[in-house]
Specification:
heterodimer; A: 454 residues; mainly alpha; three-stranded antiparallel sheet; disordered C terminus; B: 587 residues; alpha+beta; Penicillin-binding protein 2a (Domain 2); Beta-lactamase; 3 domains; five-stranded antiparallel sheet
């Protein structure tokens, strides 16, 4: 068996095919998006993207042939390296768009956070796989929280708000798979939601109910909570009332341990505290930009501009699109960030519904194959990593596409494989390489070469 | 299949794996539905928006239509001045400076830049020059080759040739307010548009406004001009031919003006046969050419309420004019020969504890109904008014269409007001006294009318009950000369009274001018019929009324005059009507 045949047998053809088609779509779209009067420099963008693709492809080949069991055994080293990278970017990185998250290699910028996300998945999966028998212990929880917050801390210092959101779904999926009780997952969800929602509540009120009395009432309550002692009284009252309810339920033969109540309350409490910290770390314009997606018409020239223009671009494509290089929104520069975050709108405008829906189907194919790989993997670690990577891709796609269509807040998340950006495409190809390496070790491939259908 | 872990663990993993996968499918379906909604369902809407924002229109405003008087004299039309716009696609400052230098050379005068520096950075169109004359524009057009990036557009200005005397009929124009665009958005108004206010300008705005043209250009998001697509020349609005007799209008206006500086009043002249308004004056008028100027408001303050169109919106007590209605009520309802009913007037009439006075303190002596009318005796109408009762008086007031809009094609007409004895009883819980009826019979108390209503009423009487809806626009021709509107004479209302009543009413009105209170309106060879009135005014001198028509045997025009605080009508209002008759009949 030649090396090539061996290689082909390892990779999942459907997965690699859909990824390559997506990258091809990406090239065409970047070409079109940067062709118009606004950029006039598509060659530069295309060539940089091509270089990044070649580097990424080399990485892909490397990772396909690299046994993923090594990651499992050296998860501590991987985690420490990822922390070092994050720390060094804080020390030596350069600032771009208000985020200190870029290494400046004179001819191109590299965003190491994309790599550290994959490293996090590898090390975190390994950690929970090894400690799977200890999930009920307190030490397990503390270590898990420590791992997540270690990364989050450094990322918030950049600050890169959109990247922090990535950790929520990935760690949730991992904990769910490993068998953590549903209640605790619920607590994490509540924590996540609270820490974001409470902060936005006031901005939301500020922007939407300027004339209503209800606004002042709610703002008063929030201000009231913020002043320390009052908040303490209030929380004490709430806790006491919750305790009374529990007592009542307990007496009426509906029994469950009080520890749940305590954990729930402390989640709420810490969620509120976390929200204050997140609020402080975000600038005012960022908060407003995040909330404007609910009704972009409120500020059509400012924070709502991106969403409105993006929706116009998507809608005006209709069924068949306007044709390559013919989209008015793209070519005349109405669409913001059209070769990076808003590239999906370009596909929609110039390719129409047919192209955009096909792109979504390609992503779905890719994620489906990742799930199949997760199912057929040789061991639990492989399954966990495959699922983690699938979650990562799904998160990116859903958030990015939802963002350009105005159903998700505007957070700068790239569309994997398609968006212009070297770091994104290299790290995504690495992830695909790891997926293929897991596939290559699968029992079905090595023993009988027969694949089971899903 | 996992090689190291137990089968049970793998099975639980499979379940969770499936669950997560289904959840992800769900997310993808949500996204796809949204995509389908935006592109297929809302596609057309967004396509229109996308096309709209890639175009920019450098507008060239269309001229509004001309308004003519009855004898085709131009009352108002548009004149053009020229505006020079500058646009540079690469935003070179020195290029702009060069152009300004060049322009200075051509025009031989100093150029003050209207645009601020802030505007110049925006890379859009800059207004270089405003209010250029035709000659200056031609000079610039000749040297267009040296001046790249320059656009010349026309800007219409409305010119009113008879600004004060016709101000209330014609109205004026000014820029549309932003809040108005919102509720007028179904029509074609946009920001910077001029819209008609008051008068014909408002009612017939949709005919008068033309279609704006301009250069349609393609722009990008930074508003750089990419290319000009087409030029559409503006289309002038339609021309309106009004029924106004300019000569009479000015005579009426000047007659009011001559009485005094502080006088206020209104004159309405109606063509009896058709209902066409020949004169509609409200004094004081305002200078419509000065609207929008800085000193306009200052000049307005000196003259009180000059914006107020007294002919349509001024509410006055009719005073003795109401005796016409009381007269008709008495004639129509009584069975006996009313002419034989004689009442002796000794200057006052006692009802209960109160005394109601006649305007003549010494009394008129013995009177029949015709004499009472011509001398305007209050006592006669007090007594007979009490006999017919308030119900009948109200019924007849309504028969004469008081308290109703006349339906003239001018905006903001007032209804007027007639008291309602039933209403007073139920709402205020005060009984309708007999005293109220006596006052009502001579037109004081709870009754208010506009001068236009009075003019219509007297025209209807002249027509023996046939009512024509008053109108002011005869026809409208569009810019190509095609007739797009012609007024149809409307006679859907009719006042039904017995022939005897009409006959005696006309006789009484004729006698009023021939021998009675309206003597000063008497002309030598043309018979005029009319009625004077004095509306009591608690704030100052009484208002003087005079309504009349002529010639009495074959009526052509009907006139209503009111002079605010003019005191006795014979002194103030009647001579104005006389002057109009003299001009109209050339005597």
């Amino acid at each position: 068996m030649t090396f090539f045949q061996h290689f082909i047998s390892k990779i999942d053809l459907c997965l690699v095919f859909s990824v390559l088609v997506l990258i091809f779509v990406g090239f065409i779209t970047i070409y079109s998006a940067t062709y118009g009067s606004y950029y006039k420099n598509s060659l530069k963008y295309i060539s940089i993207q091509l270089i990044a693709f070649i580097i990424g492809f080399v990485c892909f080949l490397f990772f396909v042939n690299f046994d993923y069991q090594y990651y499992k055994n050296s998860y501590k080293i991987i985690y420490i390296i990822s922390l070092i990278i994050l720390l060094s970017v804080l020390l030596f990185g350069s600032i771009k768009r208000g985020t200190k998250g870029w290494f400046n290699f004179s001819f191109f910028y590299f965003q190491p956070i994309e790599i550290t996300k994959i490293m996090f998945i590898l090390s975190f999966a390994s950690f929970i796989d090894i400690k799977s028998t200890e999930i009920k212990k307190m030490s397990f929880f503390i270590s898990v929280a420590g791992m997540i917050f270690g990364h989050l801390l450094f990322i918030m210092m950049q600050p890169d708000f959109s990247s922090t959101l990535f950790y929520l779904p990935v760690s949730l999926i991992f904990l769910f798979i490993i068998g953590v009780e549903f209640f605790y997952i619920l607590c994490i969800v509540i924590f996540g939601i609270l820490s974001i929602l409470v902060m936005f509540f006031k901005i939301f009120l500020d922007m939407y109910f300027k004339t209503f009395d209800i606004r002042t009432f709610c703002v008063d309550i929030i201000d009231f909570c913020k002043t320390g002692r009052n908040a303490f009284y209030m929380i004490f009252t709430i806790l006491f009332s919750i305790f009374l309810i529990w007592l009542f339920l307990y007496k009426s033969k509906f029994r469950f341990p009080i520890i749940y109540i305590v954990i729930l309350c402390s989640t709420v409490f810490f969620g509120c505290i976390a929200s204050l910290h997140i609020e402080n770390s975000l600038r005012n314009y960022q908060k407003k930009r995040l909330i404007t997606f609910l009704n972009p018409e409120i500020d059509p020239k400012g924070f709502g501009y991106n969403i409105i223009q993006s929706k116009i671009a998507i809608g005006s494509g209709k069924l068949f699109g306007k044709g390559l290089k013919k989209g008015t929104q793209t070519q005349l520069g109405f669409l913001p960030e059209q070769h990076t975050d808003f590239i999906f709108s370009v596909i929609c405008e110039e390719g129409g519904w047919i192209m955009s829906q096909s792109t979504l189907i390609l992503y779905f194919l890719m994620i489906w194959r990742s799930f199949v790989i997760a199912k057929t993997a040789r061991d639990r670690y492989g399954s966990l990593v495959a699922l983690g990577l699938a979650t990562m891709f799904t998160f990116y796609v859903i958030i990015n596409v939802g963002m350009v269509m105005g159903i998700v807040p505007v957070i700068g998340v790239p569309l994997p494989f398609v968006s212009y950006g070297g770091s994104s495409i290299i790290s995504s190809l690495c992830a695909v390489g790891i997926l293929c390496s897991i596939n290559g070790k699968s029992v079905y491939i090595n023993k009988s070469k027969i694949r089971i259908p899903y | 299949m996992w090689s190291q872990e137990s089968k049970f663990t793998y099975e639980t993993f499979r379940k969770k794996h499936k669950l997560i996968f289904i959840f992800f499918i769900f997310l993808f379906i949500c996204i796809s539905i949204r995509l389908f909604y935006l592109q297929i369902i809302k596609g057309n809407k967004y396509k229109i928006i996308a096309e709209k924002q890639a175009f920019y229109n450098i507008p060239e405003f269309a001229a509004r239509g001309t308004i003519y008087s009855k004898d085709n004299i131009i009352l108002v039309n548009d004149k053009f001045s020229y505006v020079i716009l500058y646009h540079s696609s690469d935003n070179k400052r020195h290029h702009l400076r060069q152009i300004i230098k060049e322009l200075k050379k051509i025009l031989k005068r100093d150029i003050k830049l209207i645009a601020t520096k802030k505007n110049m950075n925006g890379n859009t169109f800059i207004k270089l020059l405003d209010n250029l004359t035709l000659e200056e524009m031609f000079k610039i057009q000749e040297k267009m080759e040296n001046l790249k990036g320059i656009f010349v557009t026309k800007k219409p200005h409305r010119i009113y040739y008879f600004p004060e005397s016709t101000s209330h009929i014609i109205g004026y124009t000014n820029k549309i307010r932003v809040d108005e665009i919102k509720y007028l958005s179904r029509q074609v108004y946009k920001i910077e548009d001029y819209v008609g206010r008051c008068g014909i300008e408002q009612t017939y705005d949709k005919y008068l406004r033309g279609e704006d043209g301009g250069w349609y250009t393609k722009i990008n998001a930074k508003r750089n001009l990419l290319k000009s697509l087409k030029y559409i020349s503006p289309k002038k609005g339609s021309n309106i031919y009004s029924t106004i007799d300019l000569n009479l209008q000015q005579i009426a206006y000047n007659a009011l003006k001559r009485i005094g500086v502080t006088v206020k009043g209104a004159v309405v002249v109606i063509d009896v046969k058709t209902g066409a308004i020949r004169v509609l004056v409200s004094y004081p008028g305002f200078d419509t050419n000065k609207i929008g100027h800085k000193d306009f408001l200052n000049s307005l303050n000196k003259q009180n309420f000059s914006f107020f169109n007294r002919a349509l919106q001024g509410l006055y007590a009719p005073g003795s004019l109401f005796k016409i209605i009381t007269f008709a009520t008495i004639m129509d309802t009584s069975n006996i020969n009313i002419l034989e009913k004689i009442v002796e007037c000794n200057g006052s009439f006692k009802l209960g504890n109160r005394h109601y006075l006649c305007w003549n303190k010494h009394g008129h002596g013995k009177l029949n109904i015709i004499n009472a009318m011509s001398r305007s005796c209050n006592i006669y109408f007090y007594k007979l008014g009490l006999d017919v009762g308030i119900k009948n008086l109200e019924k007849y007031a309504k028969k004469f269409y008081l308290g109703q809009k006349t339906g003239i094609d001018l905006p903001n007409e007032k209804n007027g007001f007639i008291s309602n004895s039933e209403l007073k009883k139920s709402k205020l819980k005060i009984k309708w006294h007999k005293g109220d009826t006596t006052i009502f019979a001579i037109g004081q108390g709870a009754i208010l009318v506009t001068p236009l209503q009075m003019a219509c009423m007297i025209a209807n009487i002249a027509n023996k009950g046939i009512c024509h809806t008053p109108y002011i626009v005869e026809k409208i021709l569009d810019s190509t000369g095609k007739e797009i509107y012609k007024h149809k004479i409307e006679t859907n209302k009719k006042i039904i009274l017995s022939n005897k009543t009409w006959e005696f009413l006309n006789k009484a009105l004729l006698e009023t001018v021939e021998k009675g209170t309206g003597l000063k309106a008497k002309l030598n060879n043309i018979k005029i019929a009319g009625k004077t009135g004095t509306a009591q005014n608690s704030h100052g001198k009484d208002h003087g009324w005079f309504i009349s028509y002529g010639p009495a045997d074959n009526p052509e025009i009907a006139i209503a005059v009111i002079v605010e605080n003019g005191g006795s009508s014979g002194i103030s209002a009647v001579p104005i009507a006389k002057k109009i008759y003299e001009t109209y009949f050339n005597v």
